[in-house]
Amino acid sequence: MDEKLKESYERLGVDETVTNEELNARLDRVLKRRRSLTGEQEIAAYESEFQAIKLILDTRDKREVEAAEQERLAKYGSFAGTAGKWEKFMRLHKTHVLISVIVLIVLIVAGNLLYNNWQHRKYLASLPPRDAKIMIVGNFGVEDKDGETKDLAQAMIDQYPQWKRIDILLSYLPSTDGTRDTLDPNFMQKAMVEIAANHPDMLILDEATYQWIGSQPGFDSLEPLVAEGAITKDDPRLRKITNEETGKEEINAIEINDSAVYQALPLKSATEPVMIGVLSGGDGEAKMLDFVKHLADLK
């Protein structure tokens, strides 16, 4: 037995068989007697008796807890000691462990993102230079197996081997009434943001989208196609807009849905006609016009 515990029993004049009920009853009497004590010796005696009772009760409580803990850990068999130490460690350091785990997860995720980004940049670096970026805006659907635009881009390259790489972006633009008379304003805003952010060289549009976007400035004139004799100025496939600055009518798009080249592409529009236009500020107007002429099946 611990020496201090032994001295506590002797101080109280009891042995180890004394019950907790007896000790608690004695503690109550001691606490009540404390109110009437005035002398230093009386107070010292009270304090000594109080501490002795408290030590015995605390020791017994601790032993009961330890016994219950051993009984609970008995299911671990020979690993009970290890399990107990682990649980104690977790109680003391749970917050630090959780923070460490979160930090580790963040580092793993960040590392994976960096690796994927590096792999993507490595892949892009292996590709040939981009010849054109085309954005398709409207109620279109692609026939790619993966739902993306890789097959469509490859189909364009197959039909126009002068180019080795075409990036295609698809911006879905539905209507709110099912008739294409009223385009969804949320998707309209999204489409404008995507056009501004991606700076495409050309736009492929359905009729409803052209009525919205095509009436705005920003397209290059397709007059050079007329000038070189690829198409006559009065051809009904040509679309025109009045330039607000000059007041003159300018050709800014051409219908392509009847061309054999367009019909061979894995791209379908819910409505016709379908137009293509070249945006101002792109890379190489003449280069883009040659592609438009090919896609429109012009000679």
List the helices and strands and how they pair.
Elements: H1 3-12, H2 20-34, H3 40-73, H4 80-126, E1 132-138, E2 140-142, H5 150-159, E3 166-172, H6 185-198, E4 202-206, H7 207-214, H8 223-227, E5 238-242, E6 249-255, H9 260-263, E7 267-269, E8 274-278, H10 285-295
Parallel strand pairs: 1-3, 1-4
Antiparallel strand pairs: 2-7, 4-8, 5-6, 6-8
Helix pairs in contact: 1-3, 2-3
Summarize the structure.
The chain has 299 residues and is an alpha/beta fold. It is 53% helix and 14% strand.
Question: What does this 3D model show about the protein?
Answer:
The protein is built from ten helices and eight strands. It is α/β, with parallel strands linked by helices. The strands form two sheets. A six-stranded mixed β-sheet has the order 3-1-4-8-6-5, sandwiched between helices. It has a two-stranded antiparallel sheet with strand order 2-7. A hairpin with a 6-residue loop joins strand 5 and strand 6. It is rod-shaped. The mean pLDDT is 83.
